[in-house]
Write a structure and sequence with these properties.
The chain is an alpha/beta fold. The chain has a domain of 205 residues: Queuine tRNA-ribosyltransferase-like (TIM Barrel, Alpha-Beta Barrel), CATH 3.20.20. It contains 15 helices and 16 strands. The strands form four sheets. Strands 4-14-13-12-11-10-6-5 form an eight-stranded parallel sheet. Helix 13 crosses helix 14. It is globular and about 60 Å long. The protein starts with a strand and ends in a 5-residue tail after the last helix.
Amino acid sequence: MFQLLKKEKNTKARLGIVTTAHGKIESPFFMPVGTNGSVKTLSCEDLREFDAQIMLSNTYHLFLRPGMDVIEKAGGLHKFISWDRPMLTDSGGYQVFSLTKFRKITDEGVEFRSHVDGSLCFFTPEEVMRIEHILGSDMIMPLDECAPYPCEYKEAKKSVERTTLWAKRSREYFLKNQMNQKQHLLGIIQGATFKDLREESARAILDVGFDGYAIGGVSVGEPVDLMFETLDWVEPLLPDDKPRYFMGIGYPDQIVKAVGDGIDMFDTCIPTRFGRNGTAFTSRGRVVVRNGEHAQDFGPIDDSCACVVCKRYSRSYIRHLTNMNEILGLKLISYHNVYFYVNLMRQIREAIKVDRYQEFKKDFLTKYGSSLT
């Protein structure tokens, strides 16, 4: 699945190739989040236009709507949404566990009520694998238990034990049903903000054996320094020959730092969520395009950006659209933001190729205005 091509000489940054049934992905890479089978306001044609390599979608949401019967009849998720490139689906575990008042967890699985119609549902590790088999996504995540922040040690330890139990059952189902012929299964490491539990979880998940490894249970409200401390604990334990996924982060400066710490895969809904609220990401930090200071600014969102939005439209016009609640305004900022993330990953890969990632990182963080190092 994964071929490590290069380690940057001055950092832990890595170049690699992930091979899937729907094509190859150059790493490090960013996955635009299409929770419901669509990256909000953007079409698959938009994503192809700026060469997004992969999309992420969500098992929980697709299970509820449109339902597995529809997607199975369509021939799988790729055909249903007309996306011919690689796809990763999250298990939906995070979404289920966020339904605190509407779910019950046992070692067998999670019983929960749909946030859509209140109907009673039950996810087991095996059922999640069955659903992701129907979806046909290239990379799939097993059901895990995400401990909240903050949480007590006892609660975090239980989530580690249950995540390991479910990982074993998921892997068994995956192999028994020959899903490994077309799909790759990644293991998830939990442990909250406790060093010994993170290390315990990492060793247990590695013992099960997966096609790649994800650090889960981060970006759930903990301080940024704690998030990266978690990465510092786990990264030395991860094998070189498998892709590494830092789930759910984050802001551009966080991604730049995490690449330097040895991470290959990223996802976040931040680009489109901020876009729908009138905020753009630029090489010099965030810009709130809605603000009055841009009313007569006829320059692009980012004068160093080559996306079609920055080539054609001014901050003034986009501000006008967003303040008039025109859908086009939200689309234009979202398009720029997702392009910014995808293009950032291209720049990162180029810097690693020529052993200049340390300089790239320093220059980017200085211009962007981040305190991360």
